[in-house]
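USER:
Class, as today's exercise, take the chain set out below, and explain how the chain folds.
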Amino acid sequence: MDKVDAAILGSGNIGTDLLKKILCNSKVLNPAFFVGIDSKSEGLRRAKKLNIPTTDKGLDGLLAAPEFKNIKIVFDATSAKAHLDAAKKLKKHGKIVIDLTPAAVGPYCVPIVNLDALPSADNVNMVTCGGQATIPVVAAVSRVAKVKYAEIVAMIASKSAGPGTRANIDEFTQTTARALEKVGGAAKGKAIIVLNPAEPPMMMRNTVYCIVPAVKNGQSEKIKKSVREMAKKVAEYVPGYKIVNGPEIHEIPDGPHKGASLVTTFLEVTGNGDFLPRYAGNLDIMTSAAIACGEKIALKMTAGSRA
């Protein structure tokens, strides 16, 4: 099978992990160009050692490169602010962009939930690490009961939060909350992120709260089964993804949701250890989800070229 040429914008942790995963594991994507802005970055050094064309001139360097004309897919692992400019420029050149920032220019993609139903788009947004970890659970609950409110808490190791992650904290909460609604099916969503400075660094942990109408007549087991089945499917492309407790279902005794049921699920994401440390499951789930999305798009391209 002919591979589809892809470029990676961003030579930080996420971009470098993408490079290694695609290079070692993808049967349909070819990492044809690697882009950074720091000539001394570890990512650019690794790419050069692998004889992959690079530039330290950012997006402008990619646009000026002779290899650019053959690039079909661009993975953007920079920042939400930088992506707004990149999305416009790449669209003019007819490139499909997979956005790993929380800029949310294009439709949200959580592979196990909506990849197959995703409409054709020149820009696809991978939401956030917290969104990739928790939206599948909310969607699984939504298959059984109406989710009136979903709240997620994503706790990640402080060491796994680089400059881009820290610069995008506000966008993280906003984008994740919207995607809990649009993709997860919640009527109202809220997202919280916690950077934990513990040493040794902790694995990514997520708590998912869903408020649903009072659970009755065996519905409890249906919800639990739906969540567990969804978690197994996520683990097919994110092997370190697992439920550590729950789903637990309890009646809410008081307050504005009195009489409704609260579904609580606790998750942990351990990274594969490809380039990133294993505690950086928050970054690993993003790169794994982005590649799953990119491969699906690439397969459609190659199918079209063979038709």
